[in-house]
Amino acid sequence: MNPARPSEVLGNICQAGISEVAQAIAAAKAAFPAWRDTLPRDRAEYLLKAAAVARERIFELSAWQVLEIGKQWDQAYADVGEAIDFLEYYAREMIRLGTPQRVGHAPGELNHYFYEPKGLAAVISPWNFPLAISMGMASAAIVAGNPVIYKPSTITGIIGHQLVEIFREAGLPAGVFNFVPGRGSVMGDFLVDHPDISLIAFTGSMEVGLRIVDRAAKVYPGQSNVKKIIAEMGGKNAIIIDDDADLDEAVPHVLYSAFGFQGQKCSACSRVIVLDAVYDRFVDRLVKAAKAYQVGPAEDPRYSMGAVADAAAQKSILEYAAIGKQEGRLLYESPVPQGEGYWVPLTIIGGIRPEHRLAQEEVFGPVLALMRARDFDQAIEWANSTRFALTGGIFSRSPEHLSRARRDFRVGNLYINRNNTGALVERQPFGGARMSGVGTKAGGPDYLLHFMDPRVVTENTMRRGFAPIEADDDWIE
Ligand code: NAP
What we know:
Shape: globular
Oligomer: single chain
Low-confidence stretches: none
CATH architecture of the largest domain: 3-Layer(aba) Sandwich
Bound molecules: NADP nicotinamide-adenine-dinucleotide phosphate
C-alpha cells in the first residue's frame, strides 16, 4: 500500500510460509553444483545483463519506490542507481577475484590461491533501500557462486519482486535466485536455522541482526558448514559542528542528512553536537531553515518529506518524539497533512545529553537531537558515546581538529564538511562496526570475500616426465 494513502492498494503479495521456504532451499541446493562450477567471468556476465535491464527500466523502478515506500523522486532514482552500481561493481570485482593467483616463488613448486563459493545464501533485506540493498546483497552472493534465497521486507514486497523480473530477464539459470516474500516472524527463524544454509546476508535492525547471529551459531543435524553472517545494522549517527564551522554549509547539509527520506536511513544524522560558542547561532539558523521542509506525499515534488514506512514506524517515532520533549526541549515541530497517511512531523529537540535515550537509541525517523558540547574534546567523546559506529560527520575549518576527527571519531564512514548520507558504491564503501554491524563494507574491495572460501593448491613440479605448467595455464584462463 501507499504509506501516504494506505487505502490505496498497490499490489497483492503472496506469502511464503515454511513449506515454500523449504521448496526454495531445495531448488537452490539442486542449482548449486552447476552454478558453483560456472566460470566467474560467465557469472559476472549475468550481473552486467541485469544492470542493463534495470537501467532500461530506471524511471518505472523509481516510480514504484515513490509509491510503495514514500521516497522523494531524487531519493528513489538514487536507490535504483545504486542497485545498478552494485551489479556492475560486483561483476568487475568477481572478474578480478576469479582469476587464481600464483603465490610464493620457491623453485620446484607451484602454489595457486583461489576462491570458491560457500554454499546456499539467505538474503534478508530491509525496506528503506528496497532495491539497492536487496540487489547488492543478492548480486554479491550470486556472482560469487552462491544460490540465493531472498526474503524482502514485508513492507516492500512489490519492489522485492522486481529482483525476480530483472534476474529473469537477464537469463539467470533456474534455482540460482529464489524469491520468498513472507513475514520474518513466520518464517525468518526457519530460514536462518536451516542446516542447508551456509551464509546469511542481513541488513536491518540491531535487534533482528543479533537474533540472527545468536541462532546461526547453533549447529543442526545434517549441517556441514559453520554459518557465515554478514550483518549490517543500525546507527545513532552524529555530526559535530566546530566553533569555526561554515554555518552556510553546515545548516543545509545537516537538514538533508537528518530529514532526507524522512530520516529513515541507517546513515541519517540523528544527533548534532554543537560547540558551545556557536550553539545558539547554529540552532537559530537550523530551525529557520527547517521551516522550508514541507511534509506531504512523495509523489508531489513540492514536498521534501513524505509519509513514514507504516503504522508501526509512525507509532514508534511519535513515542520517541514525546520522550525527547521530556528529556530536552522542543525547538521545532513541523505541520503535517491531515487525514489518512503515516505522517510524523519534522522534529528538532534541543538540550539532549549523552545519558538521554534520545542520544542512545536509534529512532528510525525525522527526530533530530541537538547537544551542546563544552569543547572539541567533549564533542568527540560524546560522538563516540553510543554502542553504534556507522556514520559520522564534522564541519570544521581547523586542520588540527579535522586530523583528530580522522583518528578519534570511530565510525565506519566519516564525512568531513559534507552531508553524511548517500555513500556511493566503490567511492565510499559503506558499513559500520560495533553494534552497527560486523565490519563488512558493501560496495568495497573486500565485500565479495565474505561470500567465498579461499583455497590453495600446491604442486611439486620437480617430478620427471610430466609437464604440468601448460595445463595449469589453461586452468588460469
Ligand atoms: P528489521 O525490522 O530488522 O527487518 C529487516 C528484515 O529482517 C526484514 O526483511 C524482516 O522481515 C526480517 N526479519 C524480521 N524478523 C526476522 C527473523 N526473526 N528472522 C529473520 N528475518 C527477520 O529492519 P527494517 O525495519 O526493515 O529496517 C530498518 C533498520 O535497518 C534500521 O535499524 C536501519 O538502521 C537498518 N539498516 C542498516 C543499514 C546498514 O547498512 N547498516 C542499511 C539499511 C538499514 P519482515 O519485514 O517480514 O519483518
